[in-house]
């Protein structure tokens, strides 16, 4: 069901934003962002209204002997297009996650499985880096600790670009791998796991942190295997005392490390606030892509069978090499579509 009053309000709002931009009234940057959000929505509304009007006009011509044949020829195509356009309008009207357009902080850590889990964590990091590169996103390593075998003990990365959080937000959770480890001489398949967290980058206006609630320690930055990469106390560790959250940054500049660590801390605190709000709504939500709980196993990568399965939506793809190479769009598109279907069902209930 298309809410006609809502359509009119959106079109009127776009006209107001356009007029304000033309006259220079208000915050031009904010108006520009709102215009960019509204313009594609109004374009979908205009197309739906145009086709609806053409159907009504063609139907009115069915009683005209001279125009009846032309109307009968046009109507099937117009009627076939209408449901797709209605669905597009409904999707455009869905409430937007305000964080969708933001950069994201990606965190990857090994779970159960020892050295093999650390190696798999490294494989996931390369998978996401290739995906980021393919989309033209910026990949900035904030914290990286390597294992002795070249895997990852921890990786924290800032990713910036177009719709980063919107594309990656369903990646949070436990990723499980089934394969024969390189260190396994008997050829037995092992199961191990790594955890992925994707946090929207927070702005200072989102999260205000009381400096008295922070403990800031400086220490020597270290590289893989604990080897010192320099002799100055440049690494920074910030502890948020009320929550116990700890953030570390090991760039060469101590000033830059404080800035980066605060950025990550804000993202984690912002994520906590968003999670509380999501939990409050979850009891009333009839459809969603998983629970968002990072203890939940969301995906299995089975190397012997060349198979990737996303357990939340029952999607199985037999192209594991391409997935590990960063070909994630089919998975992400399916998760997004499932999420949108849940929102539509919630709105129509």
Describe what you observe in this structure:
Residues 223-232 and 281-292 have low confidence and may be disordered. This protein has helices at 4-23, 28-60, 68-92, 114-134, 164-168, 254-282, 320-324, 329-348, and strands spanning 104-110, 138-146, 152-160, 173-179, 190-200, 214-219, 235-240, 245-249, 297-302, 307-310, 315-317. A hairpin with a 5-residue loop joins strand 2 (138-146) and strand 3. The protein starts with a helix and ends with a helix. The longest helix is centred in the first third of the chain and has 33 residues, at 28-60. The protein is α+β, with helices and mostly antiparallel strands and 349 residues long. Helix 1 packs across helix 2 (28-60) and helix 2 runs antiparallel to helix 3. The strands form two sheets. An eight-stranded mixed beta sheet has the order 2-3-1-5-4-9-10-11. A three-stranded antiparallel beta sheet has the order 6-7-8, covered by helices on one side.
């Amino acid at each position: 069901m298309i809410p006609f009053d809502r359509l009119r309000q959106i079109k009127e709002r776009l006209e107001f934003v356009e007029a304000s931009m033309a006259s220079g009234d208000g915050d031009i940057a904010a108006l520009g962002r709102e215009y960019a959000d509204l313009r594609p929505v109004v374009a979908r509304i205009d197309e739906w209204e145009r086709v609806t009007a053409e159907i009504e006009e063609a139907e009115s011509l069915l009683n005209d002997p001279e125009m009846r044949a032309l109307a009968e020829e046009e109507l099937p195509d117009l009627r076939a297009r209408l449901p797709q356009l209605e669905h597009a309008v409904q999707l455009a009207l869905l409430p937007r996650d305000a964080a969708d357009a933001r950069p994201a902080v990606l965190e990857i850590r090994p779970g159960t499985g020892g050295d093999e889990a650390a190696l798999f964590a490294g494989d996931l990091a390369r998978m996401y880096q290739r995906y980021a590169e393919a989309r033209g996103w910026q990949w900035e390593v904030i914290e990286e600790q390597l294992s002795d075998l070249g895997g990852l003990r921890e990786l924290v990365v800032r990713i910036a670009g177009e719709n980063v959080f919107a594309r990656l937000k369903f990646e949070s959770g436990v990723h499980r791998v089934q394969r024969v480890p390189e260190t396994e001489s008997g050829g037995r398949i092992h199961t191990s796991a790594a955890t992925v967290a994707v946090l929207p980058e927070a702005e200072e206006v989102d999260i205000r942190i009381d400096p008295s609630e922070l403990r800031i320690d400086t220490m020597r930055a270290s590289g893989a295997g604990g080897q010192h990469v320099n002799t100055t106390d440049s690494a920074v560790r910030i502890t948020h005392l009320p929550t116990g959250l700890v953030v570390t940054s090991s760039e060469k500049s101590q000033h830059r490390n404080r800035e980066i660590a605060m950025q990550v801390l804000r993202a984690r605190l912002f994520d906590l606030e968003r999670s509380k709000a999501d939990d409050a709504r979850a009891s009333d939500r009839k459809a969603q892509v998983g629970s968002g709980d990072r203890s939940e196993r969301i995906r299995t990568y089975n190397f012997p069978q060349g198979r990737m399965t996303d357990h939340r939506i029952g999607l199985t793809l037999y192209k594991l090499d391409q997935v590990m190479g960063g070909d994630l769009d089919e998975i992400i598109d399916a998760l997004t579509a499932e999420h949108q279907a849940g929102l539509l069902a919630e709105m129509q209930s």
